[in-house]
Amino acid sequence: MKKNLLQQLTEANNLDELNLGLDMTDIQYIRSVTAYAVNQGVGLMEAEIIRKDLIGMAGEAKKEGKLLNQRLGDVKEFAKDLAAEGKRGNRKDRVYSSLETVGLIYLLGGLVVFVMYFFIGEMEALESGFFNLMYLIWLLLFPWLIALWNLCMYGRFALMRKFETVFSLISVILLMLPSILFRYIWRDAMPFSKMILSHWVFLIIAGLGGVLYWYGKIKFNAMIEECARQHHLKIGK
């Protein structure tokens, strides 16, 4: 599958980072700046272009025997100033990326459950609970919870240093909690929780996923290509 421009730039940046042999302090500095910028509304492609520039600066600083924070200053101040300058006021690229991800989950999840019906047999499939109404609701809602976390929480704690991992873990647990309660507790207490659905419903879900995936992918790729043109970006093959 052909990689889009963002994937190509990310790989090129990863390779540059590796070839330059950057100090872990500089790598963390760059990661914190770009993650925070994305959380504050800077586009994904713009953030990766910022990362490309920062990697170059880190390489120059290394030649001088310095770290990036010695050249650019404290990571918090630099990241906030950068995010304020680059903020676009919308998150359309991330919304389209989320649509692409949700669509892929629907597509694969729907196909897997549909195929399972024929693989394990009709009676066993029905007894397994994969084909009841509550499972369908869970399958439809859970990918959106993941997308919502990615839109709202990714990079939010990037400048908190030691506490970043702790707060990120807490946010993931809070994300998972409604799903766990719904999947294993609430489903049996809700009306129609045992209602059996036709396996064809999951084929329809897979079709819906295909449409969401295609639409999100097309719109997202169009946005990052436009961003690349605006920055006159050329990525080596």
Overall residue-averaged pLDDT value: 79
What distance separates the N and C termini?
Answer: 15 Å
Tell me the major beta sheet: none
What percent strand? Answer: under 5%
This entry's quaternary arrangement is: single chain
Contiguous helical run count: 10
Which percent range fits the helix content?
over 70%
Shape: elongated
Q: Can you write the helix and strand succession as a string?
A: HHHHHHHHHH
Q: Decide which structural class fits the backbone.
A: mainly alpha
How would the blueprint of this fold be written?
Blueprint: H1 5-20, H2 24-39, H3 44-63, H4 68-72, H5 75-86, H6 92-120, H7 122-128, H8 133-152, H9 164-189, H10 200-230
Helix pairs in contact: 1-3, 2-3, 2-5, 6-7, 6-8, 6-10, 8-9
